[in-house]
Amino acid sequence: MGSREPAEPLSPGDATQNSARPADRHGLLKHSREFLDFFWDIAKPEQETRLAATEKLLEYLRARPKGSEMKYALKRLITGLGVGRETARPCYSLALAQLLQSFEDLPLCSILQQIQEKYDLHQVKKSMVRPALFGNLFGVLALFQSGRLVKDQEALRKSVKLLQALAHHQNHLQEQPRKALVDILSEVSEATLQEMLPEVLSTDLDAMLSCPEQLGLFLLAQQKVPSRLKKLVGSVNLFSDENVPRLVNVLKMAASSVKKERKLPTVALELLRLALKEDKFLQFWKGVVEQGLLKLQFWPASYLCFRLLGAALPLLTKEQLQLVMRGDVIRHYGEHTCTAKLPNQFKFAPEMEEYVGTFLEGCRDDPERQLAVLVAFSTTTNHGLPVVPTFWRVVRFLSPRALQGYVAWLQDMFLQPDLDSLIDFSTNNQKKAQDASLHVPERAVFRLRKWIILRLVSLVDSLHLEMEEALTEQVARFCLFHSFFVTKKPTSQIPETRQQLSLPLESQAREAVSSAFFSLLQTLSTQFKPASEQTRGGQPWTYRLVHFADLLLNHSHSVTPVTPLTAQQRQAWDRMLQTLKELEAPSSEPRAAAFQHLLLLVGIHLFKSPTESCDLLGDIQTCIRKSLGERRHRSRTKAIDPQEPPWVEVLVEILLALLAQPSHLMRQVARSVFGHVCSHLTPRALQLILDVLNPETSEDEDDHVVVTDESDERWLKASEDKSEDSEENRGSESEDESDGGESEEEERDGDVDQGFREQLMSVLQAGKALGGEESEDEEELGDEAMMALDQSLASLFAEQKLRIQARRDEKSKLQKEKALRRDFQIRVLDLVEVLVTKQPENVLVLELLEPLLRIIRRSLRSSSSKQEQDLLHKTARIFTHHLCRGRRYCHDLGDRVEALHGQVARLVEQAGRQPDSSTALYHFNASLYLLRVLKGGTAEGHLHETQEELEAGTNPSPVPEGPQAAGCLDLNLAMRVYSSALSSFLTKRHSPLTVPMFLSLFSRHPVLCKSLLPVLVQHITGPGRPRQQACLLLQKTLSMREVRSCFQDPEWKQLIGQVLTKVTENLRTLGEAQTKAEHQQALSSLELLNTVFRTCKHEKLTLDLTVLLGVLQGQQQGLRQGAHCTGSSRLLDLYWQAMKTLGVQRPKLEKDAKEIPSATQSPISRKRKKKGFLPETKKRKKHTSQDGTPAATGGSQPPSTGRKRNRTKAKGPARANGMPSTKGPAPGTPTLSPSPPAKSPKLQKKNQKLSQVNGAPGSPTKPAGQKKHHEAPPKKGVLDKSPPSTLARKKARPPLVSRSPSLLQSGTKKKKTQLRKAGKP
Questions:
Q1: Buried b (16+ CB within 10 A) or exposed e, 816-849
Q2: Which site in 351, 674, 749, 1241 is 20 to 30 Å from 569, CA atoms measured?
Q3: Are 1009 and 1002 in contact, with CB atoms under 8 Å apart?
Q4: What is the pTM of this model?
């Protein structure tokens, strides 16, 4: 980098490479690498890295304040000011500023002189002018950022002169030097500014108004030293008519300069303050802003006006606010808010929200100004719809008085809309459309009223903690009154009747108010804290609103309902109030509050849907009386009048009817009520819920509950949105229509059936337009015949079009009904979730398994839409987390034991028939849940029958105790069911069952695992897939503590022995794998073998491994031959891991073969050596005797390590043939195979020498009849008849079978003890 850019400092790497040069001009050799790396980290783009490097550099220099490092650091940072990389210059400038700030003894004039000498504009080359200019600029900025420049007068004057000189190079630096000059002078004292003002400020007015920087300098002097400025330039009126165009031009330039930063230019804010100070705000706002900048049709200038509006809010009085907030700026802001809707468009609304929030937070003691600003933004409308959203976060800063005034203004505007007071506008597209329906006053009133009512509800929703209770009640009463009542004449007892509507409420507007009221009711009922959920009287808000509605009904001469109540409906209302009074009495029933909430909510719905609510009220009151009047300990099995359904069934039907309504509040109330009554649930009541959830019946038959369509409410909103966006998106709509027309044509062509084709052929033949081969010479049709044919064809195609449209409508209707049904099922699942979470011990919970599984199966098959996905996720969550994994479950099974056993078998069978594993997992988990229920359940008949069989002695299988106690579970039946499933899993190629399923079964029910393990052991030696799956499953099962606890020690030892026998049989074909499947089988067998070894080591079992070792050693040559095959490394690792457990170390044969050349190597190949290896003459040779044999043990033996050498020496003769040096196994140690007969020392020595001659490095003795494999090649430098060296004898570790016939029979400590005993003479 330093070689490419002469001005950039050298890197540490370059410094190292150039260290051999005669002259070290940078003095890099004196500094450490750590110090040099600081400067590279300073220039990195990551801010954290730069700051950390700067801090480390300062700490490094503080430790050496007077060393050469300081001088080098200054040179390096000054050099970095003019590097070619633009991103690195500010980094070096900031680091230099922090350095000067930390070391105040460094003179600024000296630093500035070094900068000027380094970047002298008169001496640099032409190609280096730009880096030199930036070096000077960033040097001055570093001095200024250090905070010391304004205190040093000499350095300040030199810096100002340098900036003035740099200001002439606008091609490279643009206006940056002038901006820096204004920033510096804004920090100096008034005395210094008075002295320097004639040098920096031009006395020509045209020059001052030529650029934002010159105007900023003038405004700075006007603010700090107005007297000195007046002496220099005289009296200047910036806001005169002739100066206004110049100001507009300057502000336009300032707006363009901050286009990327998106901030308010300082010069614009200073102009605003100067206009306010000189009492010329009106001229500035009208002339410069509204008539100047807004007329430019330049978006940066418009954004400057918006920012000026937001910044001016705290500075203006109430009268000035009213002037500004009703001008062209706020109207233009409204147009921008309405048109900037695309994702990639810049939206100013969030920035304006910050301005308004700052203003409201800063003037809480002035509620009038707060109210003026809020009203002004609320009256900026597009055809009656305000541009601000109904949920605006800035209202949280309102004072209580301003909030109360704002609510009063909203209510007055709702009752008597004043369209003339609105700042209404139309967008350009709306003006071009010239649609007369958009300018109808009724439409504007409807849009305004809908926004106002939603605004009132959002105020309560967002300010329910800060809002006064009286104001909340006022808003709730207002919404309730105008939702369902109309004023006949005013009355003092009802404040809502004092001010009547200037324009009557239309049906659409009243539906919008009603919807907003129930949204408010949900907020009052659910989102409030428990302390604020109730009013001062201790009653819920719903109760208070019901009493207000009763008050309105009693004043029939002043108020009348929109939908008058019949006598029957009024009686239902009165009975509801009477029931509420009864529920208010002190009662120990916890469900009384839930019933009260349900009654209140249904009672209010009486005004919305009188017929349905009247019937529900009667049924609810009957259920309440029966529920609260019955005895607490009454059994559910008590005889019930067959003519009258139980009250809980009626209540469940009511809750289902409420859930069918599109109301979140109804949904929550239904959950609450059902949670209190689910303990009284009957099978018939549960069946009512399951009928809704049953996919088969709900698809074909009509539900007994009519699902309410939300299209009426959605249509209102959709129509509004469509009317708002229709003018904005006409172009896109026309494209969509053309695309839709093409798709319609394609669909119409696809919908043509054979009947239509035949009709078309008959019409053409009747009109003689479709002639055959014989009609070629006939005359053409006449005009009348052609007209008749056209009419026939037109009527035929019209009929076909109607048929196609009817089919489309039918298809759309079916899809809509399906969506409504799915939505209803999702809401009904709330009741299932409540039952499972609050009554998990209820025996009816067991009836939920198969219905939930049916929903999961169907949703997994057709889970394309979002509703299907939601239904699937909710059902799976309830089934998995609340049901199968719940801590509590049913214990009292009664007479369901036999049925549950059948259900377990059915679920396991269904799991094996599923198309995929995900569906099978749910069925398998359901069977495990039923096993847990049966295992922990109690049944009187079952226990009594077992006791009788035990007393009579007819039960051959005693009841298991301890961990094997199975409760009501029939272990034999369960074992048969899961044994069949396990066999199917092991033998079936594409089985949906998986290994984790059976591992979950084994861990939860280890008693079954004990019975199923023989099936796994049987399949270890089976074909490909059964062997691999059985080995994998058995490998994970043997490590489970739960499974081990079910076995006695002899049983466990027998099982391990059986597994070893099967694995040994598999390993006889080790190394012969030809296919990938056979290779996987070998891998699984070795993994299982290593798992068995670990289990034996942990359990300290004693097993005979002689045959296994022989089999493994017999396959060693085959593994060597296939060592270069794909995937063989893993196989070799597992093999030698097992051999290491048996005491055989893995030889390093390949490495020796590569490094040591063989005796038969040709001379040509000897010459081609790898670079980097020592020649043979340089290698260290072993100490040999004169005849070439290694030195014998004795005086000429090389020095040893003493004790370890002696121990090895003592053990060597005894272990040379692989025999233990002890006299025999310890007394009492179980031995499964006899040791080989001991040999004399001479015979051992002879065998040792023979093995060395053959090249075997001290391999253990093998059983008779076995051939020796895995022989090592002879090593260079070792003669045939030489005895083994000390290292060879040390590496020749005898196997465990040679030392002792048992595997890890007495642990590590016992082995060490035996070795120490063997070392003693």
A1: eeeebbbbbbbbbbbbbbbbbbebeebbbbbebb
A2: 674
A3: yes
A4: 0.67
